[in-house]
Design goal:
The protein is an alpha/beta fold and 386 residues long. It folds into two domains: 194 residues, Glycogen Phosphorylase B (Rossmann fold); 182 residues, Glycogen Phosphorylase B (Rossmann fold, 3-Layer(aba) Sandwich), CATH 3.40.50. 43% of the residues lie in helices and 17% in strands. Strand 1, helix 1 and strand 2 form a beta-alpha-beta unit. The longest helix has 18 residues. It starts with a strand and ends with a helix.
């Protein structure tokens, strides 16, 4: 019989995103001498290949459930609960650690029903927010309160999310833990030998300033405000160029909106790219227009790259940016002020330099992905009595 503790990490789907990348990294880098790791997920995510590859190498075991989907689907949700319950009854894990909203609800319910003694959930953000139907939000808050009752630990990636949970009565604060969503800080800032050559890869003018964003093109990330900002900035600084790295359901809408505003030729939508660190290194300003957030890894990477950042003051973003010191915080949906700040940064090289230096300095070890794993291991050991 193995002396290792079995940990099941459960996430709704392995799409591109911070929660998914952090979960994959954790599953791969937990101490193999101490933990027997299983990664369970819905099927069909863009990163399924990575989980399968690591499973084939014996790093951990991967399990996929076709009925576990992001959308609310009563029939499939009920089936997913039953299959997860049966799976956990068979696996008998010491800990079930859930991530993302749907897996967080169904997974914790299934873990509790199957007799798992230690249940943990990480809030990489919330499934409810102030921009959704109030009735829908109340239902989500009720479910989170209910599941928090049988969660031995609730992990938050930002202090803002911690405070939002308290505001909405989710869980006793004695079970709260702050573990930052980490990135591999050793990769930033990335060194690009030929900035001009890099920009030419996407037919960009090597001499013109470049404003970049990295995010999913979905409602939470609000890419249409990035396009609106680009149009306003272009009116003042015609040579400015814009790059939105990412993909998602709003891509076509964002591209069409750029055409309507007459800036389509100035914005590149290249989809997801493996060389995002290089694009951060050759850009001049980073912009994030999220409506709600946990702790955006792209912002951590941009700041560590020494980029001056202008971002909406959504949730965990305010943990990182101190307005006027290491970047600019803008009230959510205030495109006019966002555009003004970007124009100021593009017109003032000294302001860009100072903000970039302070941004890089403010990304300390607490944002390192290796520390994130160590802190999770310490929490596991504590909960297991080790």
């Amino acid at each position: 019989m193995s002396s290792r503790n079995k940990i099941v990490h459960l996430i709704t789907r392995l799409d591109f995103g911070g929660a998914q990348q952090n979960t994959l990294w954790t599953a791969r880098h937990l101490n193999a001498e101490k933990y027997d790791v299983v990664l369970a997920s819905g099927r069909g995510g863009a990163l399924d290949w990575e989980a399968r590859e690591n499973s084939e190498k014996g790093i951990y075991r991967a399990a996929f459930f076709s009925s576990l989907v992001r959308e609310i689907s009563p029939g499939r949700d009920l089936l997913a609960f039953f299959l997860l319950w049966r799976f956990l009854r068979a696996e008998k894990p010491d800990i079930v650690h859930t991530h993302s909203s749907k897996a967080g609800i169904l997974g914790r319910l299934a873990a509790w029903a199957s007799g798992v003694k230690t249940i943990i959930h990480t809030y990489h953000g919330f499934g409810f927010h102030d921009f959704q139907n109030p009735v829908v939000k109340k239902i989500y808050v009720f479910l989170e309160r209910w599941c928090a009752r049988f969660s031995q630990a609730l992990i938050f990636v930002s202090r803002a999310n911690w405070d939002y949970a308290l505001k909405n009565g989710i869980g006793p604060e004695s079970r709260f833990h702050l573990i930052r969503s980490g990135v591999d800080l050793s990769r930033f800032p990335f060194k690009v030998e030929d900035r001009a050559l890099k920009k030419k890869e996407l037919s960009l003018n090597p001499e013109a300033p470049l404003v970049v964003s990295i995010a999913n093109l979905k409602p939470q990330k609000n890419p249409l405000d990035f396009v609106s900002m680009a149009a306003r900035v272009s009116a003042e600084i015609p040579q400015a160029q814009f790059l939105f790295i990412g993909d998602g359901p709003l891509r076509a809408k964002a591209e069409n909106f750029a055409r309507e505003l007459g800036v389509f030729e100035k914005i590149r939508f290249p989809g997801w790219r493996k060389d995002a660190a290089e694009w951060l290194a050759v850009s001049d300003v980073f912009v994030l227009t999220s409506l709600w957030e946990g702790l955006p890894r792209a912002l951590v990477e941009a700041m560590k790259s020494g980029l001056p950042c202008a971002a909406y003051a959504a949730d965990g973003i305010s943990d990182m940016i101190h307005d006027g010191e290491n970047g600019f915080l803008i009230p959510v949906k205030d495109v006019e002020l966002l555009s003004k700040r970007v124009i100021e940064l593009l017109r003032d090289p000294d302001l860009r330099r100072k903000a970039g230096i302070q941004a890089e300095k403010s990304i300390a070890e607490e944002f390192d992905i290796h520390r994130m794993v160590r802190e999770q291991e310490a929490l596991y050991d504590n909960l297991l009595g080790g």
